[in-house]
Amino acid sequence: MISKALLTDLYQFTMMQGLFKENLHRTPCVFDRFYRKNPFNGAYTVVAGLEHVIDYLKNLAFNEDDIAYLRETGLFEEDFLEYLKDFRFTGTVYAAPEGSVVFPGEVLVRIEAPKDEAMLIETPLSMYLNHESLIATKARRIRSVAGSDSLAEFGMRRAQGTNAAVYGARATIIGGFNGTSNVYSAAQYGIKPVGTMAHSWIMSFPDELTAFRSYAAQYENMLVLLVDTYDTLQQGVPNAIQVFREVKERRGGTMPKGYGIRLDSGDLSYLSQEAFQMLKEAGFEDATIFASNDLDEHRIADLKSQHSAITSWGVGTKLITADGTSALGGVYKLAGQWDEAGQFRPTMKFSDNIEKVTNPGCKKVLRLINRRNRKLIGDLICLVDETIDTTKPYTFENPMYPWKCTHLEANSFDVIDLLVPIFEKGKLVYDLPKLPEIVAYANEQIKLLWPEYLRLNRPPVVKVNISQKLHELKQTLLLQKVKRNHHE
Amino acid sequence: MISKALLTDLYQFTMMQGLFKENLHRTPCVFDRFYRKNPFNGAYTVVAGLEHVIDYLKNLAFNEDDIAYLRETGLFEEDFLEYLKDFRFTGTVYAAPEGSVVFPGEVLVRIEAPKDEAMLIETPLSMYLNHESLIATKARRIRSVAGSDSLAEFGMRRAQGTNAAVYGARATIIGGFNGTSNVYSAAQYGIKPVGTMAHSWIMSFPDELTAFRSYAAQYENMLVLLVDTYDTLQQGVPNAIQVFREVKERRGGTMPKGYGIRLDSGDLSYLSQEAFQMLKEAGFEDATIFASNDLDEHRIADLKSQHSAITSWGVGTKLITADGTSALGGVYKLAGQWDEAGQFRPTMKFSDNIEKVTNPGCKKVLRLINRRNRKLIGDLICLVDETIDTTKPYTFENPMYPWKCTHLEANSFDVIDLLVPIFEKGKLVYDLPKLPEIVAYANEQIKLLWPEYLRLNRPPVVKVNISQKLHELKQTLLLQKVKRNHHE
Asked: What is the pLDDT of residues A15-70, one digit of tens each?
């Protein structure tokens, strides 16, 4: 059976062999992963997917079937295939932890590795991070309009395959969801499995009331009754109230936690408000009103603004497929390499398109946080050896726009390194957090942003500056390039 | 390790246990899978994903870890968990083969199974078919504008997880693509792996010409040179021509098959036409001009209409994520069940929304094909015991719109059953076709449609009628429902 080591683009292998033949394959180099544009027209991205990248890198090795397949393609020679047999990931990786709130242009993963290793891993690393960050971001947008309501991920049947469903469900938890209907994902990641009732359950009984009663007898502690099968207000809600009364009496006057009704069709605003009135009049005003049906952040925001009485939401298709932005365009670019004399040579991609010019060198991201209100002042992309002395006044500025600067007083702000060490020379040095720790970190991260940055459309732009030193390096390389062009 | 048996929604399990407790779980019933709206505003959907459904059903069984997890949730009782230990899929499945071109409302999978089995499988069956059919359809749209050009799937790094990449690549082949850059998928499904050259290859050498030469020395038989790293027309194409001349001389005057250049940025129409002129003047007018960069069916159609000289396309993000329609909304509905006396009771879903009323009963789809030109006349949804005698004249009509009918002469048309047997009482009876056979079938299927149905936007609607008998059954059930409502 072939292994995940083949999970990459063909040209990564042909390039690797090409470099191998030229004896350039072990050139140490630095690659940056970053993205250029926030998904969904938002102000931020929530990082997810790192756990799967780590798992991939840790286990990266070619088995006999992998090698046999590569041989079969006729593209590879025996010396290279022999070389692959002991191939492992030996690089150093720094990355923004899962749950980090990040912005365009920032280095989110820094890879220092021999060039062939760095090339091979580009495709799967990009895939995991692009996909899972996209879903976590979509989930966070939904959380940002849902307040403290309960949010459940319901999208498996429309997901783009098993991993989209399983990893996707995990990413929604990082983005602020409370549970998933996906049992596999729940089991795998210790997520709360959630679910209500199927229409086919109701239709398996002679009438709705009998169906509700049978369900209540069995699932008193997850008593959410689906009320829209026949007629929501004429029949569904009255039948639910009838059963709630019976349960209440059976339990000596108390109701089980989380009991309520589910709406899955019709106008959710109107139906929820009417249902709430009926429940309230019957003494069940604390009943959960759970809604589903093609929801996303925009529809939930609308329903909230129309005073719907919904307190719990099931979000499926549009969440698990990241409707609106089908892919996060994360890229992976060479930022420098060491020459034969051991000298580091920063490199950058030039482009006629100014925003496609990359940042050269071995970089990191410093996050400046206001010490008083714990809000983000902005992020600074700088070279790895740079520091900021927070005991002194500091001018936070972008050398490209020097008039747009922020003066910070001494001891008024904290500085945090966004990237943390994950692998050091191939060895995993990162203590993988459990999902609840990631969730706690993610919830803290989003609080760094003022509410206006959570706006669904046209939010303000979070300040991300580059350091003076990085700016100078960039200018030097641009000038060298201009001179080279004139010379040619 | 938990198994794929947990790949479903939690409520499927709670409903299953509920029916188990009521001893209703083994009620034989019929479920239909169908969809209501074509993706991408097109006229059709291409079926894919059946192979993964079959694999899932064949291997469906709960292992000890699955049972242990379900126990852990606290929702399930020991008698039910004990029951799950020997649980297998024992149902009968009829389905439209992969590659079939299908239309809204048609039964695409018919499941006859005990109710608990039919419920459990709903979620994964829907997921595989929704996802893979969506990608195959997107690919077919791209193929429909690309003519006989070569099409390569390049989307792995932006796919929504591993399965989206691996199964997705397979689906693009069913939709008419020629190859994929995804090595894993290529190995798994015997697809042609394709790839060109990375920008980081060019940047690993002192200059572009050296990089091209090194590549040509190693990969003469996949000699596609990436010409946009520095300056496409000033430098990239001239360097490529230089290397082509050297290769030609080395080979005694012939060029290797498929040699050419790749454009990955800039205005692809202008650049391809200029590059073509330069190649032509140098005697390389048969060079492949390969293009990539955020392509989809609309952009390719535009480039074609502007006489671009591109002959080969690499399509990534927008294909592998089905940009434009993030999910195919396939649904799965109860169509009938057998009562305790063994009598079949057709059921249907009523809805205020007319197009959401489902078709009751045990159904199939007959495909009427014009014998002379082999074009599709239309599809008929009917009950399983219905037949059409092609030796007699036949009126193809929809009882709901009797004025829109087509009179067919005797012996002027053929009738084909769209659905084929896949499982009979749990036993796989379908001889799984290899991918090339599926591709051949898919290519024949699309030819059933006149070209206007392949139009990207606002194509005409393919005729799908329901039979007189099915119409009558529907009317009877609707009338019963109306009477019941009055009675209540």
From this structure: 999 999 999 999 999 999 999 999 999 999 999 999 999 999 999 999 999 999 99
Q: Looking at A320-362, which runs of residues are DSSP E strands?
A: 331-338, 344-346
Closest-CA residue to A254 (of A245, A262, A241, A263): A245
Strand order in the sheet with A363-370: A413-417, A363-370, A376-383, A464-466
Q: What percent of chain A has pLDDT over 70?
A: 98
User: Among partner residues B15, B66, B69, which is closest to A198 by beta-carbon distance?
Assistant: B15
pLDDT of B488 over the 70 cut: no
> What does the pLDDT look like over A260-304, one tens digit per residue?
999 999 999 999 999 999 999 999 999 999 999 999 999 999 999
Q: Which residue is closest to B158 within chain A, CA to CA?
A: A127
Domain range summary for chain B, segments of one domain joined by +: 4-136+326-487, 137-320
- Write the CA distances from A100 to A96, A418, A441, B57, integer angstroms: 6, 8, 7, 39
- CATH of the structural domain A137-320, one choice from 2.60.40.10, 3.40.50.2300, 3.40.30.10, 3.20.20.70: 3.20.20.70
Task: Give A444 to chain B, closest Cα distance, Å.
Answer: 27
Whether residue A11 and residue B196 make contact (CB cut-off 8 A), yes or no, is yes
The arrangement of strands across the sheet holding B331-338 comes to B344-346, B331-338, B28-34, B109-114, B92-95, B420-424, B427-428
How far apart are alpha carbons A135 and B417 in whole angstroms?
41
Measured in whole angstroms, how far is the alpha carbon of residue B178 from the centre of its chain? Answer: 15
Q: CB A326 to CB B321 under 8 A?
A: yes
d(CA B93, CA B58): 12
CA distance B305 to chain A (A): 26
Interface contact B204-A10, CB threshold 8 A: no
ipTM of the complex: 0.96
What CATH architecture is B4-136+326-487? Answer: Alpha-Beta Barrel (3.20)
Beta strands in B357-479, from DSSP E residues, in sequence order: 363-370, 376-383, 394-398, 401-408, 413-417, 420-424, 427-428, 464-466
Q: Quote the tokens at residue A455.
A: 């706006």
The shortest C-alpha distance from A452 to chain B (Å) reads 28
- What lies within 8 Å, CB to CB, of B327 at 6+ separation is A158, A160, A317, A321, A323, B130, B131, B134
CA dihedral A248, A250, A251, A257 (to 10 degrees): -50
- Whether residues B7 and A69 touch (CB distance < 8 A) is answered with no
Distance from C-alpha of B479 to C-alpha of A67, rounded to nearest angstrom:
66
Cβ atoms within 10 Å of A417's Cβ, excluding its own: 14
Nearest-5° angle of CA A371, CA A373, CA A375?
85
Q: In sequence order, what E strands does A43-143 have?
A: 45-46, 92-95, 101-102, 109-114
Name which of B36, B12, B38, B9 is nearest B25 in CA terms. Answer: B12
pLDDT at A485: 67
Q: For residue B47, give both structure tokens.
A: 């079926």
For residue range A184-210, list pLDDT tens digits in order.
999 999 999 999 999 889 988 989 999
Q: Are A324 and A37 in contact (CB under 8 A)?
A: no
The partner residue sitting opposite A123, judged by closest CB among B123, B157, B349, is B157
The residues facing A383 across adjacent strands are: A363
How many secondary structure helices (H) and strands (E) does chain B include? 15, 21
Q: How many residues does chain B have?
A: 488
Please tell me the distance from the alpha carbon of residue A263 to that of residue A462, in angstroms, as a whole number.
38
CA atoms within 13 A on the CB side of B340: 3
Residue B388 distance to chain A (closest CA, Å):
33
Average pLDDT, chain A: 95
Minimum CA–CA partner of B222 in chain A = A75
Residues of A in contact with B166 (CB under 8 A): 7, 161
